[in-house]
Specification:
Alpha-Beta Plaits; 4 strands; alpha+beta; four-stranded antiparallel β-sheet
Length: about 140
């Protein structure tokens, strides 16, 4: 069972277009018109995750902007661990207007940058999903 899991990890059974539709980081205009959303609820459904390989010669820089919540750091660390990503350096901003900014200098377990566009996309999508729909921490 473990070898099947290892072989499938990092692979998605759904297309990127379907994943984007399912886990979009903002409400579509159609969703906003279908239900009345408070400004706070619309604000909560926003997260940005960017990957930059030009800022460091040996690390991929992961830049995140999202609503701060209990367990945020845990959710991010667990997701990175699941993708075999190690953090070399990090900067976490103070909370500003309910949002938190994180800049993480990361590498794969083998010490290389993340250069595969599909792997970057999957990591960003998963991080967004986890930040927008976190496990409830009491």
């Amino acid at each position: 069972a473990d070898s099947k899991y290892e072989a499938r990890r990092g692979m998605s059974s759904i297309s990127p277009a379907v994943a984007e539709e399912l886990f979009a980081s903002e409400y579509s205009k159609k969703e906003c018109h279908m239900q009345t959303l408070s400004p706070d609820m619309t604000r909560l459904k926003k997260a940005a995750v960017n990957v930059d390989n030009s800022l460091s010669p040996s690390h991929t820089v992961l830049q995140m902007h999202c609503v701060d919540h209990k367990g945020l750091l845990y959710v991010i660390m667990r997701t990175l661990k699941d993708y075999d990503v190690q953090i070399a350096y990090g900067r976490i901003s103070a909370v500003s207007k309910g949002y938190r900014d994180l800049d993480l200098f990361i590498q794969l377990r083998d010490g290389k940058k993340i250069v595969d566009p599909e792997r970057e996309y999957l990591l960003c999508s998963c991080l967004k999903m986890e930040m927008l729909h976190p496990l409830r921490v009491i």
